[in-house]
Amino acid sequence: MTIEWKGVMPAVTTKFTDQDTLDLQMFEVNINAQIEAGVHGIILGGTLGEASTLSDEEKRILVKTTVNIVKNKVPVIINIAEQTTKGAIEAARKAEEDGASGLMMLPPMRYKAGDRETVIYFKEVAKSTHLPIMIYNNPVDYKIEVTLDMFEELLAFDNIKAVKESTRDISNVTRIKNRFGDRLKILSGVDTLALESLLMGADGWVAGLVDAFPAETVAIYELQKAGKIKEAIAIYRWFLPLLELDINPKLVQNIKLAEVATGIGTENVRAPRLPLVGEERKTVLKVIENGLKTRPELPDYKNSDLM
User: Fold this and answer.
1) Which residue of 51, 195, 276, 307 lies most exposed, with the fewest beta carbons within 10 A?
2) Which domain covers residue 58, as residue numbers?
3) What pLDDT shows up at residue 176?
4) Residue 73 lies in a domain
């Protein structure tokens, strides 16, 4: 299905059983909660999806399962995080074959590619697939920045459509809009900068805490889109302590604990990750408990009259 590259797109967690196999039953519970809340797409196999621990077969199962669950209500996007160009092309081929609607792509993993190498990497994958691509630009965590000059070259390919903007520089939203207009859609990739990015013109939000709080996340997006800025800010201010759980090395464990608290996940992670223990666990649980105690009553954000 066609992707509009706007709105809230959860970077969903991968659910595991106690036996370290895919927990597709709980996975479906969470995906259905996202759809019910009104998200605009589902993103699989990102950092929150523990992509580096998944086998190719597990990734394919997740794509096929999600496509079956959502039944064309929203697009299904799979992240590509590969070490080689050959591997990335093959991953794109499998995604298309399995029914994915689009790709999110990181630069080459492990090897710190130069600008020319990074551009050619993305170009080769774009040439190999019909699927639309969102480039994940996160130099803070992945040490390679896709600059505006690099995007200038990449946008020669019609299927490079969007950027997951995670540079942590809000002014980059304006730079992208000034340079490319609507040719390059912008989705904020940092939960704690999401509303600020949307207000500066970002088209959407690749979200993390949405995995546990889907309705609140979508409400913020829909309210700001409708010009209800005061209402959006009120929810966002309540949300911020929870959103800060996403900008942490243990973001997967943090968010999975939040999913448990809201009844749409388990805290099982795949080793070498381990569930939180001790003071670290207590600190995260306190943030979650405080959030639940003060959880706001949401307006009817799905109502078309909101506009």
Assistant:
1) 307
2) 7-306
3) 98
4) yes
Residue 82 counted as domain residue? yes
Here the tokens at position 113 are 């590619």
The verdict on whether 111 is a catalytic residue reads no
Cα–Cα distance measured from residue 82 to residue 85, given in angstroms and rounded to the nearest whole number: 7
Question: What residues are designated binding site?
Answer: 206
Q: Which amino acid type is present at position 291?
A: G
Listed in order, strand segments (DSSP E) in 81-232 are 102-105, 133-137, 160-165, 185-188, 204-207
Enter the tokens of residue 220.
Answer: 């913020």
Residue 1 lies in a domain: no
**20 three-class SS:** coil
CA 170 to chain CA centroid, Å, is: 18
pLDDT value, residue 307: 53
C-alpha 228/C-alpha 230 separation (Å) is: 6
Of 15, 59, 121, 136, which one is the catalytic site residue? Answer: 136
Domain annotation covers residue 252: yes
The CA distance from 109 to 104, in Å, is: 14
The answer to whether the pTM exceeds 0.85 is yes
Per the structure, how many domains does the chain have? 1
Task: Establish whether 136 is a catalytic residue.
Answer: yes
Q: Are 138 and 169 in contact (CB under 8 A)?
A: no
- Determine which one of 6, 59, 161, 164 is catalytic: 164
Give the annotated binding-site residues for pyruvate: 206
Residue 272, pLDDT score:
97
Q: Looking at residue 173, which CATH number applies to its domain?
A: 3.20.20.70
Residues of the chain where predicted confidence (pLDDT) is lower than 70: 304-307
